[in-house]
Amino acid sequence: MKRRLVECVPNFSEGRDMNIIKQITDAIESVEGVKLLNVDPGKATNRTVVTFVGEPEAVVEAAFRGIKKAAELIDMSKHHGEHPRMGATDVVPFVPISGVTMEEAVQYARQLAKRVGEELKIPVYLYEFAATSEERRNLANIRSGEYEALPEKLKDPKWKPDFGPAQWNEHIAKTGATVIGARNFLIAYNVNLNTTSTRRANAIAFDVREIGRIKRIGDPITGKKVLDENGNPVRIPGTLRKVKAIGWYIEEYGICQISMNLTDINVTPMHIAFDEVSEKARLRGVRVTGSEIVGLVPLKAMIDAGKYFLRKQKRSLGIPEEDIIKIAIKSLGLDDLRPFNPKEKIIEYLIEDQDEKKLINLTAREFANETSRESPAPGGGSISAYIGALAASLGTMVANLSSHKRGWDDRWEFFSDWAEKGQKYKDELLRLVDEDTKAFNKIMEAYRLPKKTEQEKLERKKAIEEATKYAISVPLRVMQLAYEAMEVIKAMAQHGMEASISDVGVGAMAALTAVRGAHLNVRINAKDLEDQQFKQQVLQQAQQIEQQAAQKEQEIMQIVNSKL
């Protein structure tokens, strides 16, 4: 199950007083489930850019608390700085990272804007994808005239805030206005060149950037500009949309780079930018030696890059996530200038709880030892999920071996597709190894709740019932996934290389074992459930899955035995 993550990058109009900045970031971090990634204060701009990430609901709450604290501590009537601004909290963009669509990010942005306007009485304008009109999409349009223009701006019906008061008052004089919206993730991405010539680097940058270069007569650098009928320079567009680029020399590295902002990685992702710069550099006699990511990158961008290069090699895409990322790092040359550590650069990895002890991070021996101890968890539920993951892994292994079999080159995509499906089943079943133990612990926590008063007894009873239902849902999900993984195993029994047919058979038996083991957990967890309708429904569903899995295992084993 993909974790739902949103990044938020609020800009606060204070970059000099670290005490104020700290109070704002403390307010943001007070929300459970939010991870503060970066705090970047600027003295000259008198502005601080804060970056944090988390589940959407937690991010909305953290952003609200940050805005509220900034409104208490920053007085815009006394603010001066080089950067354009119109409020104590100047702009708050929401950026979907994983498991969240742009449409959903827009709704979260509007939810925050409504709350800020109504509860904090701050004028709020919506921008970018959340904008209520085309004119308001551009932040520069909204911020035109900055804070000083607000008294007159609020009088203009055309610039009535989307939320909050539209009349200038003492409160607004202190807080200013805030702009809230949703935008795509921006990656600052530099491509390294084997040249020290800034002129050549710039020529390559002009070749690829969306805005391109000015058209000239004769020499492309010094020639006379070609003008249109309105007297504006005619431009030759570059080859990459949603890309800003410039060439520069980096003294620290002793080389030139193409420095790019990829403003919409859904339009131009890193791997496409890398390949295009490489080609344009080649045409100018320059070679790309690698690249670097400035700041952080979403996991999806790295996975997409790895799969892109695997596809070019006609190699299976159904390999572990870690292997795909290694391919991306090597193909993009991300370790050209310094080591690239995925745990420090990929957002999803960075926010993982490093202190959380996970069963799937143990060695095989440690896992067996942990299971053998006197504690009741991990138990049969976790073991069933793990057996299911191993079953899916066996089917995936055969798919990957078959995709690279000599003489089967024209079939690599067929097997790659099955391998990708197998990897998804494996990854989700591995997640459920730990989830089953968490579900057991939730039941134990519910039983430990106080039960002195009648109200406490009712609340405890309700908590036990809810925790029990969750503890049933986990093994039920294990059953479903292990059964679905049998489709991969069956396909490999039918079409995979016969030298691995015994592995297919073991995979089928393991998958059925996972289904039956998880079914036992469903039954024992449902034993004391009071919601009889829910109980009968899940027991019936579980029984049906086991029957289907048993039938599927028989079908697979018939194929296996016929080939042995």
CATH overall fold name of the largest domain: Four Helix Bundle (Hemerythrin (Met), subunit A)
What's the overall average pLDDT, rounded? 93
Give the number of helices. Answer: 18
Distance between the termini: 37 Å
Cα gyration radius (Å): 29 Å
Number of domains: 3
What is the annotated CATH architecture of the largest domain?
A: Up-down Bundle
Q: Give helix % range.
A: 40-55%
State the major sheet: 7 strands, mixed
Structural shape: flat
Query: What is the name of the CATH superfamily of the largest domain?
Result: Formiminotetrahydrofolate cyclodeaminase monomer, up-and-down helical bundle
Roughly what fraction of the amino acids lie in strands?
A: 5-15%
CATH class group of the largest domain? Mainly Alpha
Number of strands: 15
Which structural class best describes the helix and strand composition? alpha+beta
Low-confidence stretches: none
Task: Explain how this protein is built.
- With 564 residues, the protein is α+β, with helices and mostly antiparallel strands.
- The chain is built from 18 helices and 15 strands.
- The chain folds into three domains: 178 residues, Formiminotransferase-cyclodeaminase, Chain B, domain 1 (2-Layer Sandwich); 164 residues, 2-Layer Sandwich (Alpha-Beta Plaits); 205 residues, Formiminotetrahydrofolate cyclodeaminase monomer, up-and-down helical bundle (Four Helix Bundle (Hemerythrin (Met), subunit A)).
